[in-house]
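Each lists chain and fold; for instance:
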Amino acid sequence: MHIRDDLHIPKYRQLYDILMHNIEKEGLKEGDRIPSEPTLIQTYGVSRNTVRQAIDLLVQEGVVYRIQGKGTFYKGKRRGSEKKPYLVGVITPLTKKYIYPSILQGIEDCAYERRYSLILGNSGGDTEKEWHLLQNMLQRGIEGLIIEPAMSAHLKSNTRLLSALERLSIPVVFMDCYYEDLPFSFVTPDDVEGGRLAASYLMNWGHRRVGIVYKKDVVPGVLRLQGFREVVRSRGGELREEWVWGFTEAEDQPGMDPARKLVAAFLSLPPERRPTALFFYNDLCAIQGLQEIRKAGLSVPGDVSILGFDDSEYAHYAEIPLTSLVHPKEELGRKAADLLFEAIDSGDRSPRVVKLVPGIVERESMGSPSR
């Protein structure tokens, strides 16, 4: 084993791991001496400070002890003294569906590089389940937490969760949402900018009458509506309240297809009162809308243009491939993990915010308005 420069793990922590491995491998007995500081410096090509930090950590954990002028010695195994693996928790509304496997892949890749293990929890968007997942993870001794909270638009009213997280001695990183006045780190797409970009894109195609289908109890949905509305108004477009259709996390469950019902409201309007383009909260909703619109005998993009969000695999393979805003997915997961592991390794819990700006991938669901 050797010290690597290409890992994000501090060198003293790498040396600590190596020494723990060697103690176990060589079967040291109580009172056996470990290599001296000069030997470790020469063997692993590290500084004296790195060696001392690694040994200090071994001393703090009761693995070794120092005798002035004689060296450092193995303390021997004691019951319960085995080193626990570095363990962090990840709680998201989904783990196996839609864009979440890509997000989790980013987290897992970063965890592997830094030698952390993950406990994954799927809240299903349920705050009670989320709470029990958190308690279970804390009992298992996690050193940090990444969480995309259930019903994030109402996070501040979830005082039980926030109070518990604020009392923790471990770092917490929120993912896919942002609150400026909460004392945590956040990694999120810039959803206000995403809404602005969507509105600008539709209006650049010539659409002045636009509608939106959004999830109203999660932060991304609320912020996208905010940015969308802002640009439509500033550019003289029209976004009537009857063209703003919202659904909740509880309605967005398997088999419920909330966008179908909302698009039915769009279809019930006389043609002259319909928007010519629709911006959907995500690609799944956009596909539900696309299917309902085509079932009603309308064409996409001939009669109405459709814009999705997430640039998921569903956008690629829809019956009419969807133009979609890009969710950073894997990058989001990696950035969240980076922030968490840096906070664990450095001990610096100062809140940090990373916002990732979305782009657009153009496909076949967009066109100029026909009326």
